[in-house]
Amino acid sequence: MVPRLVKALGPLVVLSIAAVTSPAGAVALGGATPSPVVHEDYLIVSHDEPSGRQHVLFAARLAPASPRVLVGLPTPSTPTVEPMPKLDLAALVFALVEPHEQRTRGRLSARPAPWVMDRSTLSSFVVAPAASEQPFDAAWTKSYVDRGFSFAVLDVVTPPGNVLEIMTPAAHVSFDTPRVIVARREPPRAEAPPDDPPEGAALPMVVESLRAAPKDAAPSIEAIERALRMRSGPMLRCYERFLEHRPEATKVTIEAAIRPKGDTASLRSPGERDGDESSRELARCVVAILRAQKFPRADEGWKFSAELAFTPPRTPARRTHLVLVGPSRHVWRDPPASARLLHDFEAAPEDVARVMTPELRRVMALPEGRRLWVSHWLDRDVRRALAEDVVFEREALPADGEPGTLSVTTPKPDLLPAAESPRETRRSRLVSKRARAALAAATAFALAVALALWLARDEHRAR
């Protein structure tokens, strides 16, 4: 059977994914089960300048789970592929960036959730440009074959089970290239876009257990739910950030008191104090959004409580972490609006040695005893059918004392005193005024006591 495209995704180089029954014949997933798409992927890239060889560590989270997928990574020359199943790339990037965050901002970022790497197995093979059969979209494949690209193909098998997504084991892909290149263009998606869900599709946020009181004054349950769902867009962005650290369904409980005109007298969530930092951050984000929401008017004040149930969306938001590390600085000129440079700094040798074993540094061709630079990009582009490949420009490392170097530290905002609110300012002034009055009274009392003792001593001498 001629292989047939099921779904395209992308990374390094563009990911194309197809569900398969065997390496010889791809079979599309049919029925109500959608094909998997990339939720989040990591690419750690280094370039060995003396040999002109690029090294890439790659892993991805795909949703929904599928028994078997092929992941294709186009490379400008024939690659070698080596599975590295024990390597957690999300944890590696966090550990690489954490010392810089502490040094320059005085704070720790939220640690990402551990990747469950023992759930899937990974094998690999290489497809040459001249191969008679290609397992991916014909037009997309031809666009790379015409330029002499090969394809590093990762074959990911996941045993059946009640899982939301697949976390692929990491792979090391290496190929010859004079410059750092990352292909982003992907085949067009075969399914409906996420903003046009099929009938009956589950929504990523549902209002549950909604209760309002007093019953004779509070608006209807339907009216309150509509008001909550009006802010679902911003709240789902809060949930997207939560998914970066804990890829799972979750709930946020809210409790609110509403004034007659519909503005909030108070709105809180127990989750602001409970659970891990990711859960607390989600609850705080949701509460901040809903405090500004207008609710239905009533003749008197009323209260309500509800649970907001969040589930991973049918087509997950896309996040590609692209991390370049090496003895040179590689610059992405004119990046798209979807890509943002999160970190750009010189890594301390001891930090790199702590994060990467000697064997891993050898695999990535990182030289010993030389300065190393880290650039961490986050690309959130979801539709990449027209995305342009990136050819990074090499620059020498900045001189000591320039931004990003180890000899420069920026102010640590988390260690500076926070700006006071007007209420806190008034309270501070009141406390300060009372303190001055108390000090003046204590001073006057002490002077009076001293005067009395002095007069008593003179009277005693006179006697």
TrEMBL record:
Coiled coil: none
Chain intervals for the UniProt region annotation (Disordered): 260-279, 400-428
Biased composition, class Basic and acidic residues, residue ranges: 270-279
Keywords from the named record: Membrane, Signal, Transmembrane, Transmembrane helix
Residues in the signal sequence: 1-26
Positions of transmembrane segments: 437-456
Name of the protein: DUF2330 domain-containing protein
Organism: Polyangium spumosum
